Amino acid sequence: MNLKSFYITALLFIGFFTIIACDDSTDTLGSDMMPSTDIATKESRTYDVFTQSYSAGDSVLARSSKSYLGQFTDPETGTIIKSDFLAQFHCIDDFAFPDSLVGDSIMSTDLRLFVTKYVGDSLATFKISVYPLTKIMNPDADYYTNIDPTQYCDTTQEPIAEKWFTLSDRTISDSERNQLSYKMKIIIPLPTTIGKQIRAAWNSNPEYFKDSEAWINSGLPGCKGFYFKLESGDGALAYINIVQFNINYRYHIFEENKDTTGTSQFSATEEVIQATHFANYNLDKLLEDNTATYLKSPAGIFTMATLPVDQILSNDTINQAKIVFTRYNDLVTSRFRLDIPQYLLMVRLDDYNEGFFEHYHLADANTSYLSMFNSANNTYTFNNIAHLISAMKKELRDGTATANYNKVLLIPVEPTFESSTVSTKNLVKLCHDFSMTSARLVGGTNPVKLDIIYSKFTK
Hints:
The chain has two domains: 43-56 and 283-457, no CATH class; 80-280, no CATH class. 15% of the residues lie in helices and 41% in strands. The chain contains eight helices and 21 strands. The chain is elongated and about 95 Å long.
């Protein structure tokens, strides 16, 4: 290689490594070229959020497949909840009695209320009266927890049945009660003549049993449903997941050449209406307590928060807005203390009043949010409500804000999830929580903190 070729090769080699060295530092190239006004920084600020207890007014949408019966006094707050219910009964399509009924086959008729869970003392004594409904409940109507049962039956007349009971049936032995097959239930005998009338109608008018609509409109005893009225008692509230109207009979099994017993059932299901009537007492002292706020279900108290939208910076982009609601520990240690609400819905007050539940809306992480109780931290956390605050700020700028534009409710709810993958659950249904729950939250005169992170452009 001559001297000229050597120098050319050397210059190319040095240039190659110079390019590599330049590439190692190109991450700052954009910033070096951008005007200083375009450099974004993050800034965080904390705002006070004031809250107060908000009465549900005993009136929430009663869209539930369960019924509730009893009366219970909360040992911590002294509040009382009372519940009884109305139920229609489903007739399976083309219902039929067995062809081989024996003689005067109808043995008895009864109502059975199966208890899946209860709050309180299973030995508390109650009395209920049962009234047949005289008015058909509209399947297309919305029913609320302050429903007036007397609009659907005549409680000035003698009830069709009465029953004194305890949730724990003391008429059976402990060994029977402890068997795995045992189901806690309340059995209410009805006049046997009711079953006989229905049996006779099946012979003469089988079209009455074509489906639930035909059955409910048939005019037969109990076809419109029953009102289970709580007359007296305190100390427990039962969650009832199955209600049956049973006709018990004898029939013949030809293959075995013997007589045996059977039951035809009309059940309260999701195809027909079950409407629980709730009444809350002694809530005023909680609503007036400004040292905290409360959550009580069913149909009791929500918490309302007023977000300080007018104080939040207008010129910067909100990256994140987080708010945490902390629960106070219980003040009593009673074995009958209430459960804690497991899920809270945050929804705008205006959206709730305009039919959030009636229109089957779901938490969309845009203007409504769902939070699960964190037992480790004793908190409900809404990690990012930035979209909600931005929507409120826009309404304020546009002049479309209502008087309640910056108010949200925290409502105990029961969500239904459907798994789409092993690790992902989709929310498919949302309704009010009708279980007995209670929580006292930090709030009132002790403001809750709203933490906001902005994207701020330097000037």
